[in-house]
Amino acid sequence: MSRITMTRLADMAGMRFEGETASGHTIVMDAKAEVGGKDAGARPKELPFVGLAGCTGMDVISILRKMRQEPDRFDIEVEGITSTVEHPKYWEEIRVIYHVEGDIDQEKLTKAINLSRTRYCGVSAMLKGKVTVHYQVILNGESTDLPDNPE
User: Fold this and answer.
1) Domain limits of the chain?
2) What is the pLDDT of residues 5-54, one digit of tens each?
3) Strand pairing of 91-101 and 73-82?
4) Which of 3, 70, 78, 117 is most buried, by CB atoms within 10 Å?
5) Cis previous bond, 88, omega within 30
6) Which of 123, 125, 108 is nearest to 60 (CA)?
């Protein structure tokens, strides 16, 4: 079982909360000033993107290392298209963009990403069937969209 605790911080007039993860790390969340916050932390809806990027990033790097592929640079960008309904606002589509530089084999990189998104990344698994997630790779400046349904 995994568990977090969430505590409203001492500034009771604000919207700041601090979450403590099961592994003992803290995350501060806050809202924009126009809705009562002080912009002193991440927004709650940003955190699934952080989780998705971290989960797939760790998977892909681990798989690439087993394939004896070590990128010089590896960054992940996650973008979302928000629903047009009034409330609740949610992500209708997500795009995961891998920015990779170095002497990396394109086929091995694609295989590592596909293994992450279909087999290993628990965050991807939680999103499956709930939101459309598109994947794009920019390897040494060349962009490739990956198929939505990898084999």
Assistant:
1) 5-42, 45-146
2) 999 987 667 899 999 999 999 999 999 999 999 999 999 999 999 999 99
3) antiparallel
4) 117
5) yes
6) 108
